[in-house]
Protein 1
Amino acid sequence: MRKQLFVLALAAMVSVNFTLFAQQPDIPKYGRDIEEHLNKSVYQIDSSANAVVLFDKGVSSIRYDKENGYFYLEITRHKRVKVLTKEGVKWADESIPLYKSGTTKERLSRFQATTYNLENGKVKSEKINLRSVIEEEVSDKLDYAKFTMPQVKEGSVFEFSYTVVSEFTYSLQPWVFQSEIPTLVSFYTVVIPEYYIYNHRLSGYENIRQEKTKSAEIITFSSFQREQKNTGNVSSQNVKYETEWQMYYGYDIPALRYEPFTDNINNYISRVDFELQYTRFPGQIHKSYALDWNTATRTLLEHINFGRELENTGFLKEEITSLVANKTDNVQKMLEVYSQINKKIKWNNRYSLFADNRIRKAYSEGSGNSAEVNLCLVAALREAGLDAFPIALSTRSNGLVHEWEVSLGKFNHVIAGAYLNGNIVTMDATGNYSVPNILPLECLNGKARIVAPNRSEWIDLDPKAASRSNCMVQVSVDTSLNVSCSVNELYYNYQALNKYNRIFVDNNPETFQKSLSAKHNNGSVENVKTSHTLTPVPQVKVIYNAEIPNGLISRGDMVYITPGAGLLPTENPFVSGTRKLPMNFHYPFIDNYMFVYKLPQGYEIQEVPQNVRFSLPDGKANYVKNVLVNGNDVTMNFSISIMQTLFLPEEYAQVKEFFDQLISANSQMIVLKKSAGK
């Protein structure tokens, strides 16, 4: 009888490992070097910060379990935070992710947390332990272990450390270096035996340094061979292998703050992600874990709550056949089917890549998640004889999907596509105010993935055609220099969708009227009329009258009028000298304005704004102003267009200068002088 025993022995390489990490951050031990930070009230990295991460240190190490004979993952973390203001107290709430799959779940094995305060010149500490941690289920894949640091107030320093034991050696979790408060030091190490081949990818805009080294390790396999009743021989076999140490660290990482025209800010956070390519254990064939998108597409097509739902669509046949019976044009068929599904199934406000219930049930009950609504739309379009297919995407609030990151878990929504007249038409029947090729704004998030056996490819959902708005305003200035205006606004496509959400979805006329008044120096607004249509294109119309208090400046015989009646842009949204994040306008647009100024008798026009025209290279953005004088009437036409939706940080200076010029041009005044003897 032979019984194998496993013993792990590490080669004496510790000194080699750490001498190679010449710039390794100096992280104090738990409970050490506290008082110097209790006495600080501001940090040079950000004098306006309400809290600062002093350091955040983590290690993910794939280790060998000598008792059970398998590798496991051990995750340790030690984080320390200084609270600078009352607003910074909110950072006392922390959570630890614990992943699970079936009956296998990550386990929080060690935990300590301490808050330090300075009272009467002495350091007072408050501690909590594992009993203070509450686990909360987020999904069937994830729990959070939540805790609140005790006695945290302005001036506190708190720290915590923990260890998580995991069997998921095939899934190293990402490390995030940046948050909404600045971080002085973020330091992350991964320790990976040669049997696991991981790729890593650094993303974000901060300088994260990386170093690597290797250490030699030994697993000793010992066995006992019984020869007689109480005797036998012990034999040993050593298996040598290498472990790679990867160290990532960053210093003085600024807070990640929202900047104007930024989409989901988490798309730009500095982090490192890992993907297991394959394993290669001794005596075993290589096992690949890396997916490609064609494999991911097949997975979706074979999934019972996705592709298989499109195989049982007979329940739609009679109704859809009747609906399109007299339609010979495929575009008309598409519009009829889209309208039918949009009216028939009300979206339950839950985004999902997969159907929770059968699409037949959603159709009959008139309610479903986004997958049920739009998979039903795909099925109905196919019943109408159209070449239709699902398109998987990630919504703006969910973050970007990268082509290099093959993961179905990044998607949280599905829409419908149809191939018509050589073009792909996109549709989302969850929208209250949406038509083919005008998707809800939440869907405009870069690229999406077509899911079809013969058409598995990426599609760019960013609109190419410009959405327009036309604003016609008649401004009257009476002899008492009171200013009033009548406004007629028309919005199209995505401009209409934006306005529709503000007026008809929010459905608060009083709030909307107040927003109109705010544009006109809080003057009275009357006779507000709004309307909307979907065909031939989405359109919203707004008409109203307004009084404009302080609508001009009167000094002696001189009168100065700033054009725009409060409707033109007057402030540059880009005020920072530099910018790290891209600028995303989400869709191209053209805003047209016509102002007709009826000026009072008894005044002479002394000066009017000059005609102006300027643009960014390649027509990425354009500004035009034309002025026409006819007696005491001044007509001014403005056109502002942004034709490129995404601008890189390197283009920030150009964009900022464009808006500086725009604001300056909008500020040029009409100057009047009272006629002699009047």
Note: The first strand starts at residue 2 and ends at 10.
Protein 2
Amino acid sequence: MASKLDTVLVGNEPLQLSIEETADLLSLRGISMDPAELHAATAGHPLLTRATMTVYGQAGTGSICASVNTAVEDFLQMSLAQSTLGHAVKDFMIRTSIPESFTLELAAQMSGANNVTAILDDLEDKGLGMWFDIAGHRRFEYTTVVRTLLLRSVKSIDPRVTDRLTRIVIEHDLAVGNTINALRQAVTLGDLNLASQIACDHHITLLVSQTQAVRIILETLPISRLRKYPVLVMALALGHSALPSGRVKSLEYFGLAIVFAGMYRSSMDPGQRIWMLTLESTAMRFIGKLDGALKFANRAVQSFEESPWDLQERLAALEPTLYDQAAIAHIHAHQFERAEELLLKALDASRRAGSGPSALLTRGLLAFTLGLAGKSIEARVHLKVLESTRWPPGMLDGYWATTFRLAQVREALDRQSFEEASAYLDLINDEMQVSEFWPSIVTFRSMLDLHLKGQVLGPATLEAKIRQANRWPLNPAGQIDLDCLRANSYLAAGQSLKAAAALTKHSRNEPRVQLTRARIALYSDDPTRTLLLTGKMDGVGPRVEVHRLLLRAAAMERLNDPAGARDNAQAAASFMKEYGLTMTAALLPGNDIAVVAGHVHTTEPGILAPVSLIPARAQTASLSPRELVVLNSFATHGAANDVAVALNVSVNTVKSQRRSILKKLGAHSLEEALAVARRQRILED
């Protein structure tokens, strides 16, 4: 035991000696030293303690601190001198200290020794290292202190020998799947061409489960050395992007990746150019430039599909990522059919490449895409596969499983299983929330607040949630998503004017904007305008089509066209049955839901009864925007004088607006008016 203290482990932590144990060792060896001073000098490290005792015992007298400074090196020299294998063992140890651990085969290849087993057994007996098993493979590892000392001696070897030995280690690591160590060794060697190639060929392994390790390795390099290696800059950006506090740094690296890729793309071979186009698309997406992301993504896909067969074979490891990244750009643009097409190609490429992590990532994206489009039944097929699959360690709880969790939330919402959806959303941890899909996280949380708590988020609370979640610059499509969320929240609170104002900066021809404006028109008792806004929409998915048909049915019912209302509602029912959707997310005003649901259930009685989120028009007073401001100020300040000061208007103006508010709300006092306003959900937070 005493000769192997440095190799004994308790759990996953190295054994550390206490002062009492240090005193016992001194007594056992018959050495007169102060245990407290020795323990303080060695921090209880077993090998360092034993080495210091040995050196001090040989010297007889002297400073303990001075002994510690040379203890391990002197102890190592003494141990090797006593070895039956001769002093050549030190050369063996120096050569084999380059990797963190090694197999018999690797040690023999690096040292040229024939008696590797005997050497390593002897070193273990002397407490300088230990054997251990990983996945059935026997490996040897020097103790931390010994390896640190040996690595200093590596510098004395001919650099050409060190280079050759390091490349042997890299080749071995790649062969056994230890890609992170291969990348580390390539960076240590200074061969950034090789490091870049490793990052390209093994990007799924490195960036799915070892993102932070990659970041730590690459951060040691000055950015000036990375100019010609945009792949490594991109890896740095992705590493920072997975950190809640890494937004600014990641945006800087994404921008540099775009610049460097543009500078050196023309000098690259065709395969490298395709990879660079993929990286540029990804970087463009992260900095909020969706048009640029789509352009580069489409160029990358076209270049790959038009390339010769032998080049496609060479890029087989890249193919799933190429299609995945292109698909994500189309998901953001709400071009779900194209995204689905690309993801099916990525899934096929992952199968051909035998890449399990890549297939999981792609299937999660595919389930999310299908869910957003409204193909909930198809999404369930992929979710069942993902839920029954054993994921690689750390992947299911990390950034790369975000779309899988979001797909689960979307599918549960489509079944009106709100508790289940909330449980899935709670699984999205801090690391996942830095995802570029953060607007979906905010939207789903707001929907669940409405359904589970009956809570309409006021503007201040909603904006606070958006600011808290905002990790990346919004692309135009993401801005539309959030502004439609704002508008629907205002509408659920009975504030149609504010709902309309939230959409003013967006194109009137965008389907999401059109549908939200149609809801506002229906709420405002303008069914003719609702019909105008919900005319035929080309290229939209089942979800948008169902919402369009239900809004038209409600508008026709109000216009005394029951036949038209029935036809549209029944057409929507057919879509809902085919794709596994419900009426709830259509956000119909409360006084329209019952009528439209009756038409739906005539055709498909099995479709779940809808939940009303938007109040009927008659339930809410029509206050002007200024009256809403005054009413909210009264809720905060109470007295007319205080409201006048807060709003910088005269007291008479405030009193006049108060009289108008009381009349519209049918109230006899300010307290009653505030109670009515709260019931009608027209007060802000």
Note: Confidence is low (pLDDT under 50) at residues 1-13.
Protein 3
Amino acid sequence: MTWTPTWPMNALRALLEYRRTVVVMVLHGFAGAASAQATDLIISEYVEGSNTNKYIEVYNGTGADIDLSNYELRLYSNGASSPSNTATLSGILAADSVIVYARSSSATYGAGVTVLSNVINFSGNDAIALYKNSAPAGFVDIFGNIGCGPSAEWSDGTYHTADRTLVRNANICSGIAVDPSGCLFPTLAAQWTQYAEDDVSHLGSHTMACGPTVNFDITSSAALESAGSVNINLVIDPVATTDQTVYIHLVNGPGCAYGAGNDYITTPAVLLGDSIAVIILANTATAFLSMNINDDALIEGLETVNCTMTSATVGLNVGVHDQHVFTIQDNDDTGAPTVLEPGDILVVGITSSIDACITGYDDEISFICFKDITSGTSFYLTDNGYERAGTGTMTWDDAEGLVKFERTGSTILAGQVITIQRKSNTPNVGIDIILPDGLWIRTSLGTLSNFNFAASDQLFFFQGLDTDWNDPTGPSNATYSGTVLFGISTNVATPWTTDGTSSNSNLPPGMSCFSLALSPSSNWHKYTGPITQTSQGGWIARVGNVANWNTYATCALFHSSA
């Protein structure tokens, strides 16, 4: 049969990139006109990459050229209270310019660098200081904590100094001139934006916006169509002493329209050019724009409005959190749950190690469905293998996880990428669907609480009833009488061959056309094949062809690739 998608399937690759951008939640800021200037140099970027890929970037936001011979970079290794290595800098650093220092063997950044191998030789538990040796002499900026050496890194649980890139936030206009007390790095989360290991795309330039800065308070929000008026909040820090205006540009997603009688209007109203002018009163720390939603009777999919701060009046800067995605969720969907068949689900991306990119998470699975997923539709996901007890037993392993997901939100249209993530060290209770939204109920069946996708493993999608899974006492003797929708194996050595371990599985009967065995071995796999429109059978053939998949050496490369 020929399948006509409800949105262009040639958007798949762009949508995979959109998934990466939203999951990581790294947003780029646009600098407005600064109302003040820095008084000295700052460390503007820190790259603690793989192998010997280490970089430190220094930025001059003072408005005047600076003679670098008056400064030193100092390395304090493993908790040392005195410098382990020191390098006196040289040259003139022009106003609004950066200089990038690197090890001689650093290879990930191709533009010009200054080699300081003795100092740019740090790990995640080493402090780095920028020191001024001319009057007034003293520390100009400190990264980390001098005299304190954590075992591997400084971290607050989300931000890390090991295996990460950290970029100084645009509103930071002066360095840390006093070494923090204790053994903490108290400004790590407040002053830095975190990127993946080996991300050097921000080196070579820096944005500094001193003075009052406006940001969205969160990166996304959602509301039911019946919610009426919903505020999207802005925060201003420090407050401005005079009234200011920030301009926010709106871009509607597919099926979403602005205007009376359409999906929504705003307060303030949209000006010519799809932008809104939000007035920020003097000495106020918050402002908002209101999304006034029209509660129509149409059955619709998720509708999104992408809000981007584009500029502000003199005296107000646009901060790093300059984007917000607002989602309208339909409340008119009364259709029956969707019945799925083998081949209706296709996995398009899978990784068993995303912690280096998204702190606190291990596994990530992205898939598409060829049918609309209506409210009330459910499916099951398991990493249990088939016939672990031996070929011909027709039983399933029961030592791993089995999780049910039931849709509670509006219809997800066919072709939309759906992404599942599993939190580190929290088996079934940490598995959630995060895109296109989190409107699902997740249930762990029985005592199965060991869902943990490994680099050499298998996953199966089911649909049926909870009672279709029957697990009597004893090992590897569970049976399933529902529908097996799709299977994927990342066991390169012996795909779809049971060997009595949890890493191998036979393929259930009738699934040879609705399964995939990936190679070569990797923690990170993504479909990168043709994306032109084709039939459902054509898509199944494409995704089932290993030549249409790429594997990646790191999480950063997996998430940065198209």
Note: Residues 1-35 have pLDDT under 50 and may be disordered.
Protein 4
Amino acid sequence: MQVARRTVDKRPHTLDVRVPATLGAAMRVGDAHPEAGSLATDSTHGCHWTRHLGSTGLPGTARKVTILRHGPGHAKLAMEQVTLNVLGPGDVSRWMATYEEALAAHRDSINRLNVYPVPDGDTGTNMHLTLEAVNRELGLLADGADMVATSKAVAHGSLMGARGNSGVILCQILRGVAGACAEADVVGPSQLVRGFADANAAARAGVMRPVEGTILTVAAEAAAAATALEQDSPEASLVAVAEAARKAAVEALRRTPELLPVLASAGVVDAGGAGLVLLFDALLHVIDDRPLPAQLPLPSEVAMLLTSGRAPGGRPPGARAPGGRAPGGRAQAPGGADSGRRVAPEDLGALAAEAHATAGDKAPDTSSLRYEVMYFLDAPDESIPAFREVWAGIGDSIVVVGSDGLWNCHIHTDDVGAAIEAGLDAGRPRQIRVTDLLEQVEEESWVRRAEAAARQGPPAEPEEPGPPPVTSVVAVATGDGIRRIFHSLGVRHVVAGGQSMNPSTAQLLEAIEQARGPQVVVLPNNANIFPVAAQACELTKKPALVVETPGIQEGFAALLEYDPEADAVANLEAMTAAAKRVVAGEVTRAVRASDTPAGKVEAGDWIGLSRSGIVAVAPSAAAATTGLLASLLEEGHEIVTLIEGAGASAADTRRITEWLAESHPSVTVELHHGGQPLYPYLVSAE
């Protein structure tokens, strides 16, 4: 029996098929019989195609039919799962929906595959948000939309929803696949091979200087493997093509550190490549009902680095008990001893997510408990009730799950020492992880505000007396103080965003269109936003140009040269020159261990980053900031700008300014409150 798409309904079909019974023999459950073609009654009834198999009604692949007894001379058909040999429009939509689901599940892990151990890795977030936009566009299609309309929705949704470098490259990949899909009513093996090849070509064409060891390498290897399979086996099935591409993608991902030294130094693989592998996992789920992976296909040492927050052999921050690798057994996931869901013992992140979910939908309160403490506890089962009682008195968001002497423990508290000591009283805690929630809450707070602003659209530019400027400025920023400074320098459109929450192409395009001036310059203020800003400028009908400002500090400097009465080209030249005169950096806290040119970094250390990488490692924010300034300041620098963000303190700021007065007495210090999350200090010198 040939069908276009697989059915997921295993119940006996309501269609009666008259099958003559053998004389004197009882009809009973029989063996599964593969059929070569459609039953005549099936074709007449038609419901297999319309209700179970989708809207294409075209041949796909063999399925199994099981004959069940249903009265004398009658039988029913039990439909079983099948493997697709073609994709219809509905299957392409399910592919995109499944890919979004996979990215959502692994977003945090992909974010942590950051070259630098900073708390705002964003590759997973950007790829996920790009797929959200794709599926929103697909959701607008009418029922029964054909392949051309479906492919157009994928292409347009990815274009308008692309965020960050990874989102723009993923957009090119999806547009390449969609272009090949649009050329046929259904996508067979040959169209899929061409789609992967077109995706690889589009991704590379969209990057000015392609770098190997990135998502581009993963896309190229997957496309090459699919093409080679088709050449060697012209009759290869759809699932065989997808398997070949996925296998090559995983192998390429694991080789990325060999091709890109910065990945090897950081002990990670390419984040974008990891996210792309999930595209093939999602495809195999749709084609062959393969389960989506519970873990990313990472080398063991990379997986351990991400889950433990330390380098192999290192010690997690705050641990007083001896560290060690996760035990070889398995610990139960949140849900209780009988929940049936299990996670690998090293999956502390799953425990945190469960604990946060149980807190409900309340917005975090920055005045509440400051620290998150998590660890595994080797303790007798009978000691756990008393352990829970102790924890109940010192915190909330408490989750303690497990059995048979191994417990997974999570709490929010202000007393880190008491939380760990309770574990020492009950047994032996291991893999202790302590997180300062204040920074996390600040980031979540501004991300929620940014998302709300995105739903409402950029605020309308207030009407001002006189004619509009020749050139308006659109800037990307977060932090109330930074927005006020930008406004004072002539910016009337600030799009919420930054390293952790890159704006989409559509958001920037809308701000450009709403600007009063007939010409526009855009300040992305983050290198990761350059490609999206450029894409928005290409889509608008206004003359619009991007000033490549890699940070807020360069954005401030550029605005000092902004002339609203000059055209966009003149402003671009003057503002770019001003931005390049600034040397800049920022200070944040490491979220995992890493080896850097500035020395060994442990999770929890403060690090100073220049535009070329980590240049300072210190136990305090003030020390990291002075170390960063020491590396940036040169003879001839006259002005240092210090922008305070969330986590800055008056004491630390005083130590920094005193150090500048002593070490560089000729330098003038300008101090501003920016309010940016995650980075307590942004600095620049000019």
Note: The longest strand covers residues 395-403.
